[in-house]
Amino acid sequence: MQILKRAKSPILAVLLSTASFFAARVAVAAEDGAAWTGYGGNKGFQRYAPLQQIDAKNVAQLHVAWRRAGLDPVLQEKFLDLVPSNYLKSTPTLVNGVLYGSNAIGLVEAFDAVTGATKWIQKPLPVTLKEASGQGMRGVEYWRSGNDERVISLRGDFIYALNAKTGEAIKDFGDDGKVYIGIPTSDHFGSRQTSAPLVVGDIIIIGGTGGNTQGNGTGDLGLNKEAVPEDIRAYDVRNGRQLWTFHVLPREGERGLETWGKESWRFSGDMGNWGGMSADEELGYVYIPLSAPNMAYYGGHRPGDNLYANSIVALDAHTGKLVWHFQMVHHDLWDYDTASPPVLADVKINGKTVKAVIQANKVGYLYVFDRKTGEPVWPIEEKDVPQSTVPGEVTSRTQPIPTKLPPFDIQGIKESDLMDFTPALHEEAKKVADQYVTGGVFTPPSVIDPAEGGKKGTLSAPGVWGSGNWNTGAFDPDTGFYYAVSRTEPTVYGLTKLKPPATLDYSIVAAVNPNAPPPTPPAAGSTFAPPPPMINGMRGGLPLPPTLPSGLPLLKPPYGRVTAYDIGKGERKWVAPNGDDPAIRANPALKDVKLPPLLGNSGRAAPLLTKTLLFLADASDAVIGRAGIHADAKLRAYDKATGKVVAEIPLPAGATGAPMSYEANGKQYIVVPVGNAAYGSGWVAFTVN
Amino acid sequence: MRHIGFISAGLLVAAGFAPFASRGAEPPPALFTADQPAAGEALYLQRCSGCHNANLTDGGQGPGLITDGFWSNWEQKSARTLYGRILSTMPSNEPGSLLPGEALLLTAFILKSNGYPAGEQTLETADTLNPVRLHRQK
């Protein structure tokens, strides 16, 4: 058990040359109560608005000030077949009384902060259904130099720069206002990102994915080990010129290459950033959480720690040079992405102000670092973990475990985690769990044993979709509290031995309909290359979490929760269920069973903090089809100190993105992106009189 | 403070047609020939199953397309709207990449997977779907 210091020291020379560069260019003051200057509220991604007009006394009187459709009807009416998703992701950015959001098809819309009325809408160019087809993004960025004001957005394979006053393309940015960012892959798949870009000084920084499908899955799955690294890239906000690339997978001659055994750096990939980024503009550093390598559940072909997978990297925003990094999961076998936004926090710890960055991940821990040096604020210890039994797998002997802050969700599966509404249900749950290998949080995936009574793989939590994600964190600079929002859902990691032409030895697979027709060559004019989706009648596919025979969850509630930490004290303060789950409550198997007052909801909800309250909405089932609220959603206000619900305000549909708050014309507003099948999608603004 | 942007309702109005429902008692309409959903399945396995699962039950990255959840979204909606949803938003990491003909085959496959029968008539144009209101077949 050695104390870990994997975080590398700062490169001082680089630091000195860039600090002044950025100090001069802080476009909008983060402390300006009227502003919400980016998807995360500010560059530190605190999801905090320093406003107090809406407080515990009047919050119950919140009423709708305006609503706005997720796609302006003008565009909607042009194309009969433009049917946007109801998963409206965008938290608008507010600057000078104007909100900028990514609409339901990913184009930028500017609207009035007081009335919600349209100022302008980005035009699809050319105006065709194909160009209008799209998915929304979680946010857009704003940049300004003198009179030159721009909105920077990502959509599909392009970064767009728009005139913030008119919505017109900035002609001298890239190619008539857009820059191509596609990463070439053999299956021609396009770039994929849901988070906003980050603008630091005059530099646009983007993450995103693009290499995903090479492994033959569309997520982290597949039957092949080949993928493309999803590098971080930076562009000049003035002209769109590419400035630097940070290799998430080191190239020959670069540090970290030695963490990829068997020359696996030659063919490995993924590791993209999709959980948001933050920046310390004074230091000139950008903080970037990175995700899992391909493939995420078996790594026999990639022995070693696999840098910079599952890490936070601090880069010099000016040069793209690595300042420090910390890897939360070595040699990932669980898809334990570092997928939550890194949150900047200046906190008093033992009487000394620490400039920290707080990073949550899918393991369910908070990792806190000095954001200048990368030094852990409290020791993070390398602890021995169970070793894999899968042939060819070389498990990391240890994993880093924070010594101070306890996790924000369940880890591993213990009997005490299993459903226990009644003794009979608990017995049922034990029977189901018994079919799997279970253990602590780093219990590795195992091979499915087809024998009668054989284990069907490893069952573990937080799992692929549980715990921390893009929605997880918010930080209150007044109190030093951090709020982690998480969902509880186990994953089955059951591996199957593959045969060539699959290039992976093991993967998690789903059998395909044995009578399924063979792959068709692409039709004339199709933009797809023909991928080989099935090998030997299989393809990558993650099974859904097992349930009890009645369809009830295997685990006990809460299924969604918010956990408050006092970062200064290094303590977990309280845990509260995040709303209720009417679908579970209505299960006939629970008739006559006395249930806890709130079950928590496993929809993915994002927090908002103000000076007075913590807000958390019911997440819509448009976010993750099988979880979330289908109807009768609420926005809840919590007491920040105790987690007690102060008020519940009805929403027209569940939240599909993070709420935000601002002040305009002397009034405080709260805007929530919402959507479901009955409502469509839109932004709804609340205020009090 | 108008309630704007009711996507599906707006669409039907924009299209200028009055949809009819295939009521519970009536047999569902045969909208396509048997080879169309078969071709749709091949496309589906290539472009959709990675997220929605090979058997349309939710692949973790995308919701089920034959499930209660799916029908809570699509009951009584226009089949044309479902086609438009596929054409203009899917695959969600590459919207705009499907050809109209491909979206038509995929629609046929999803309907077939939900119990809609094949028949004599080839589904040649999406306009055929305009008057069809979706209804869950048991």
What can you tell me about this protein's structure?
The complex is a heterodimer of chains A (689) and B (138). By secondary structure, chain A is mainly beta. In chain A, 5% of the residues lie in helices and 29% in strands. Chain A is built from five helices and 40 strands. Chain A has a five-stranded mixed sheet with strand order 1-34-35-36-37, with no helix packed on it. A four-stranded antiparallel sheet of chain A has the order 2-40-39-38, with no helix packed on it. Chain B has one domain (28-129): Cytochrome c-like domain (Cytochrome Bc1 Complex, Chain D, domain 2), CATH 1.10.760.10. Chain B has helices at 7-15, 35-47, 49-52, 68-74, 79-89, 100-113; strands spanning 20-21, 132-133. In chain B, helix 2 crosses helix 6 and helix 5 (79-89) packs across helix 6 (100-113). The model of chain B is unreliable at 1-24 (pLDDT under 50). Chains A and B meet through strand 2, helix 3 and strand 40 of A and helix 1, helix 2, helix 3, helix 4 and helix 5 of B.
